[in-house]
Design a protein that fits this description.
The complex is a heterodimer. Chain A is of the alpha/beta class. Chain A is built from seven helices and seven strands, in the order H-E-E-H-E-E-H-H-E-E-H-H-E-H. In chain A, strand 2, helix 2 and strand 3 form a beta-alpha-beta unit. The longest helix of chain A is centred in the middle third of the chain and has 20 residues. In chain B, strand 1 and strand 2 form a beta hairpin. Classes of the chains: A alpha/beta, B mainly alpha. The interface between A and B is medium-sized, with 22 and 22 residues.
């Protein structure tokens, strides 16, 4: 059968469109990073923090999504602070098994008694930012479980790049109020405002400091 | 505005001078300006009129073409129907009248048997001896009335013999009658047999006549369409519109069915097909599910083609019966395979959904509670049944699809004609409006230069 030139060209164009249309899933994937503060008074919140991640974040991840657990301690910008990583398989059955396995990792983390004298939130955020960027996911979310009061160890310097949080949605979760905050709410408010200004200044897509744990699922869905 | 004033310190005077100057100018330029405005009006209105006329001619051409297409397609359809009906008649003759010779033979045998029996019944019973004639002859002998003893005795003997002969004859006759009755009763079952055979023949002939009766109706329709009268065009147009609307409705419903079907198999497909890649933003697993649904529709189209219900592909229509049958079995096998795959996927889907729910519960720290076995079985059976039945239902979509393709050609052209007509009307209206505006403008112009015009008239009047 002789194929006319026009049909042949149309077929070639269609094939080229199909080939260029083929892409990997990265831009449709969601990468989540949970920063867990284990320093000072917030260390007591470890169990409730793990529960929120297990019940709120892990079930909301769909095949292809990823999750990393990073601790906030005296020197957070350290690969050892990455306590667990999860990349869900595209097969639903495998993904379920991975979820359950990661839940165990979280349980072990909750049971472990560790703490830190200083609170290096920025270091953890930088570590998380690097991790999220490396995933190449289309949606990148950073959940910070902390009181958001940073206390850096002498000698540690933390300064963000201009594009440190490009394409990242940052959420401060489960922020407990310290005694000083209760005494003067303005202290808490100005602290949160500072964080907001800081992350937005360094190209963060959004900042949310008052997210209810029960709304995590809706929040992740809205960001996809 | 003040920049236009000749004497800015005297605005009223400036305006008055400007008005008078413009009036004089417009009065002097009246003839060329009138000509210019008339030409402009003619150009615009005429141009628009020409466009409207062109649209009208296009509409007429399109209507004619649409009419021809409608007639031709319906003629072809009628011809096809008649051809199919002839095929059906042929099949009916072959089927119903194939055993007619056997029935005829049976009928002949029964009739022969009755004929033989009838002939046997028809044998004449021998009459009693003719004693009456003998008696009459003896009685007429001379002296018989004188009371001759010899004759009297003879007559008595004859009387006795006659009575005996009659008795014997009656007995013989009774015997023969009884034999005839027996033969006649033996004929009854044969009559019944004949009646049965005749009924059979009647049924078969009626069936054949019924089949051929449709041809007459189709032929009448065909003739009516060929004549191409306004009535038949209206009838065909309304038929096509009705078909279009109904086929759209059915296809919409089928579309929802396809969506349900897709949803049923999309999740389990991700378990079977690597979903790590996307094509045009869609998971490969989703595309696979879509392909399965589309394949079912395609197989459905071929099924209907092989059954002779639709006539989308002429190649299939021209196939021999044997090849068609092979195609039919192949399509049925394919559909059965896809339906089975879907049923299995539906079961897998339920399993995945249950595992997901259990995992979510476990992650939330709750004890995984499962529904009662009976309940979950019902869901699984329901989903599997749905997965098995939906492909067969989707396969039926070929019929409305063909209807849609056939009727859309006419309906869409009709719609296009309507739109073009509407554009034509709008262009006409705009042309008319512009013409009116131009004329009004000329009148206003004349009104503006009324003073110099009147002066001119007065001057002309005096001179």
């Amino acid at each position: 059968m002789i194929i006319s030139k026009k049909i042949y060209t149309a077929m070639l164009i269609a094939l080229a469109t199909l080939i260029t249309g083929c892409s990997d899933n990265k831009e449709y994937e969601t990468a989540v990073c949970a920063l867990a503060d284990i320093s000072g008074t917030y260390a007591k919140e470890k169990k409730s923090m793990v529960k929120i991640i297990q019940a709120g974040v892990v079930p909301k991840l769909v095949p292809g999504d990823s999750l990393a657990l990073i601790t906030i301690d005296s020197n957070s910008y350290n690969d050892e602070n990455i306590k667990g990583k999860l990349k869900l398989d595209y097969r639903p059955s495998q993904a379920n098994q991975q979820r359950l396995k990661f839940a165990k990792v979280l349980d072990e983390f909750a049971d472990k008694k560790d703490g830190a004298k200083y609170t290096d939130i920025s270091g953890a955020m930088m570590l998380c930012s690097g991790h999220l960027k490396s995933t190449g996911a289309g949606t990148q979310i950073m959940f910070i479980f902390s009181d958001m009061k940073e206390e850096l160890k002498p000698g540690i310097v933390r300064s963000f790049n201009k594009d440190e949080f490009t394409n990242m949605d940052i959420v401060a979760m489960n922020v407990i109020k310290l005694n000083a905050d209760s005494a003067n709410p303005q202290v808490f408010r100005s602290r949160m405002k500072k964080w907001k200004t800081r992350v937005l200044k360094h190209s963060a897509k959004s900042w949310n400091g008052t997210l209810d744990p029960s709304e995590i699922g809706t929040y992740i869905d809205s960001k996809r | 505005m003040s920049s236009f004033y000749i004497w800015p310190q005297m605005p009223f005077l400036s305006i008055a001078v400007l008005v008078i100057a413009s009036m004089i100018f417009l009065y002097l330029a009246r003839t060329p300006l009138h000509l210019a405005l008339d030409n402009l009006n003619e150009g615009i209105a005429g141009g628009l009129e020409k466009i409207a006329a062109w649209i009208k001619s296009v509409v007429v051409k399109m209507q004619e073409k649409n009419r021809k297409v409608l007639l031709e397609s319906n003629i072809a359809e009628s011809e096809q129907k008649i051809a199919q009906e002839f095929k059906r008649v042929e099949a009916s003759y072959t089927k119903h009248l194939a055993d007619y010779p056997a029935l005829h033979l049976k009928l002949d045998e029964n009739i022969t048997s009755i004929d033989v029996d009838f002939k046997e019944c028809g044998q004449v019973v021998p009459e009693a001896p003719g004693w009456n004639d003998a008696v009459e002859s003896i009685a007429s002998i001379k002296g018989s009335a004188s009371g001759d003893r010899v004759i009297e005795k003879m007559l008595k003997e004859l009387h006795k013999s006659a009575i005996d002969g009659e008795k014997t004859a009656i007995a013989e006759m009774q015997k023969i009658s009884s034999k005839r009755h027996k033969i006649l009763s033996a004929i009854a079952p044969t009559w019944k047999k004949i009646l049965k055979v005749m009924n059979e023949v009647d049924t078969k002939v009626s069936l054949v006549l019924e089949t051929s009766g449709k041809i007459e109706k189709y032929m009448k329709d065909y003739e009516k369409i060929r004549q191409g009268g306004e009535d038949s065009i209206d009838m065909l147009s309304s038929k096509a519109t009705k078909l279009f609307v109904f086929s759209i409705l059915v296809i919409t419903v089928a579309g929802f069915g396809a969506f349900v079907n897709f949803q049923l198999i999309a999740l389990p497909m991700s378990e079977l097909v690597p979903a790590g890649t996307r094509v045009l933003g869609m998971h490969v697993s989703d595309i696979s599910a879509l392909v399965i649904v589309t394949l079912e529709v395609v197989l459905g189209i071929f099924l209907m083609e092989a059954l002779g219900i639709t006539n989308i592909f002429p190649q299939v229509a021209s196939m021999t019966l044997g090849k068609r049958r092979i195609l039919l079995y192949a399509v049925l096998l394919g559909l059965f395979f896809l339906a089975s795959v879907e049923a299995a996927l539906a079961v897998l889907r339920e399993h995945i959904a249950a595992t997901n729910a259990a995992t979510t519960q476990a992650l939330a720290g709750q004890v995984a509670t499962t529904a009662s076995t009976e309940g979950s079985n019902i869901t699984v059976i329901g989903q599997a049944t749905l997965g098995f039945i939906l492909p067969w239902i989707l396969a039926m979509v070929a019929v409305p699809l063909e209807m849609l393709i056939e009727s859309s050609q006419h309906v869409l052209t009709k719609l296009m004609i309507l739109i073009i007509k509407l554009v034509g009307y709008i262009v006409s209206i705009i042309g008319h409006l512009l013409g009116t505006i131009m004329k009004t403008f000329i009148h206003i112009y004349d009104a503006y230069i009324i003073i110099p015009t009147q002066i001119e008239r007065l001057v002309k009047g005096k001179s």
